[in-house]
Specification:
- The protein is mostly helical and 417 residues long.
- The chain contains 15 helices and no strands.
- The protein has one domain: Up-down Bundle (Growth Hormone, Chain: A).
Length: 417
């Protein structure tokens, strides 16, 4: 089914296609975004997205518990695949159901999936729980477009940047928490710890978020079909998703292999140290609000170009400086590059169709996280056959592709300006 979306790019605010059953006919008033709600949404984003990264510093311990069939690598991969599938199948529901209730329900689902992982007694049950946990954790991406809806247009980038700083904090410190808990209490305990965190986040969202309903009831099939029209009709969205997908693949390639790399005889370091690398990457958190403000003032393309270049530099450091200090420097560069590009890409795409924010985020984030799955799979293959050198080549190639894609997007934008 065609949704009649226009080709081209830029701000098409106010555009409507009355033949599209997925388009609202009137703009529903929304309450203003308060400081307390913004802070609560940033915190909840962090606790939600943390669930897909808890396993990374624990992969060595999981591999020892389930040594056959490369289960540890599959746990990381299936969590990312589950997240990508959740983005595709669950995230569009934000344009269909009342947003606050949807967010609360998904947090409860996160708690259930975490309990399933903690109770796993076989590789198959752990893999199934990992897939479900990844899908439920997409609640973080229900929150981000809600911020874009509530924020004033002139401050959209700054608001997104603030909430993304919470999300990035969750990504980074999840590894630190998981590494500490796994080292001292076992990897299953970390999944038990995640249960009350998710339930507490559900309560916080119930208390702090305003009610927000879509203007028209939609059919789920029509909702999903409209994603095809968005992909076909918005080249800016396609390029943003591809570029960020390659960057995120480079990002997950490093974090998927880090714990295995640190266990090698050259380092002899455990999951607690692997988790501490999340603290090192906190520079990306600090830069997220700044990236949003820069995108508001100078446009997102400059910031995205900076991010892709720094990510490529990070993989050069990983490949050429083989020491713990080199890895620390590389992590700081990689997290900075990936995160500032992410904030700027979101600022860019949310200006395309004000009434489609959940579906725009669906297309963008699904593309990005399928890229992340590619990064996990490719890194595991490179590690098995070529070791750290192969992983460095793979990650560097991904970052290079992202940089070239961004250069092409910037030239096209300049030509049509």
């Amino acid at each position: 089914m065609s949704v009649g979306l226009p080709t081209g790019h830029g701000d098409v605010k106010g555009w409507r296609d009355e033949t599209d059953p997925c388009v609202t006919t009137a703009q529903t008033p929304v309450p203003p975004l308060t400081r307390s709600a913004l802070f609560a949404m940033a915190l909840a984003c962090g606790t939600a997205v943390a669930n897909i990264y808890y396993n990374q510093p624990m992969l060595g311990m999981i591999a020892a518990r389930f040594p056959a069939g490369g289960v540890a690598g599959l746990v990381a991969t299936l969590t990312q695949v589950g997240y990508a599938l959740g983005l595709l199948l669950l995230l569009p529901l934000g344009d269909l159901y009342e947003r606050r209730r949807l967010i609360v329900v998904q947090f409860v689902a996160v708690a259930v999936a975490s309990a399933g992982a903690a109770l796993s007694t076989s590789a198959w049950s752990l893999l199934a729980a990992s897939l479900a946990l990844g899908a439920a954790s997409t609640v973080a991406q229900q929150i981000v477009p809600f911020v874009a809806i509530l924020a004033e247009p002139s401050r959209r980038g700054a608001a997104i940047g603030f909430v993304m700083s919470g999300l990035l904090t969750g990504i980074l410190f999840s590894r630190t928490l998981a590494g500490f808990v796994a080292e001292h209490f076992g990897w299953q305990t970390m999944f038990w710890v995640a249960v009350p965190i998710a339930l507490g986040s559900a309560l916080l969202m119930r208390l702090c978020l305003p009610v927000h309903r879509p203007n028209r009831s939609l059919h789920y099939g029509a909702l999903l079909a409209s994603l095809v029209g968005l992909w076909r009709g918005e080249p800016v969205l396609r390029r943003a998703g591809f570029t960020q997908g390659m960057l995120f693949a480079a990002f997950t390639a490093f974090w998927t292999i880090l714990a295995l790399r640190l266990q090698q005889p050259a380092f002899h370091l455990g999951p607690d140290v692997a988790g501490l690398f999340g603290v090192v990457g906190a520079v990306g958190v600090a830069m997220a609000p700044l990236a949003g403000r820069m995108a508001d003032r100078r446009g997102p393309y400059v910031v995205i170009a900076l991010g892709t270049s720094v990510a490529l530099l990070a993989w050069l450091v990983f490949g050429l400086w083989e020491s713990v200090i080199g890895m620390v420097v590389g992590v700081m560069l990689l997290d900075f590059g990936v995160q500032v590009a992410l904030v700027s890409h979101q600022h860019l795409i949310y200006g395309l169709h004000p009434e489609y924010k959940s579906r725009l985020n669906t297309v963008f984030m699904t593309t990005m996280f399928f890229g992340g799955s590619l990064g996990s799979i490719g890194a595991a293959f490179a590690w098995h056959h070529l070791g750290w050198f192969g992983v460095s080549l793979f990650g560097g190639a991904l970052a290079l592709v992202a940089m070239l894609s961004q250069w092409r997007a910037h030239r096209l934008q300049a030509a049509t300006a």
